[in-house]
Structure prediction request, 276 residues.
Amino acid sequence: METNILIKNIINEIIEKNFSEIDIPKLSELIKNNNQSKLPIKQLIGKVHLNEPMFHDENYIRYFYIGISALKNIYSSLFYANLNTDSISNVLDFASGYGRVLRWLQYLFKNADITCSDINEEAVNFCKETFGVEGVISNSDFSKLNFNKKFDVIWIGSLLTHLNEENWYICLKRLKCFLKQNGILIFSTHGEDFINKLKAGKTYNRSPKQIKKAINDYNKFGFGFMARNIDPKYGLSVTTFNKVHSILLKVENLQLIRYTNSSWDRFQDVYSLKLT
Prediction:
């Protein structure tokens, strides 16, 4: 079965069942088995970019799983916000990369105008050409972000997980400006599961000193950060629920309507907020 048809059939099945009967591991097996144990990688050139870091031979199932689990979180967030897919006219995938979630948003929001935004110009151009969406080059200074419209839904997948506390606030404060009234903003974070991985010995290419400080800061202040050497504002962050809540209070007018632990990729926590 051709890959794009297979994906369409799977997403239609998910939407029809409203996610209530979908088992993600079984869905991954469905993808695998329908293609005789392996997706036809050669057929996906141009569909999935060669520079997509999450897609390679030994990890292709996880690539689709990440998209599906993001979609599940977005769909559930609509329910908590009393919204439905037909009422959504504008969607933003912020920090969209090469479209691992974006390709699924098109199937969920069939009638919406979708915009992708990323700091990587190559990735934005790829998404524009491949998926026919609008594209906006992002800015490392989040206060300078600008879009020519407001959105019903903004998805931020695994961006705040790389920012220090100051940029968390700046990013959320600015993106709020482009959210429609009663629109929803959904983002992922590193939480308790991330801390447990660090304690268990996973390093994420960080030094023992950085890891120790991140764990201590997490326990003491609710926010730990391990900077990347070439950019002190970018790295890996980990936050408690209470700390996220305190940041949201400073941003103002974003009501928490849903929180789930490790619900994206079985690893990242997901927060869903409604502009009031």
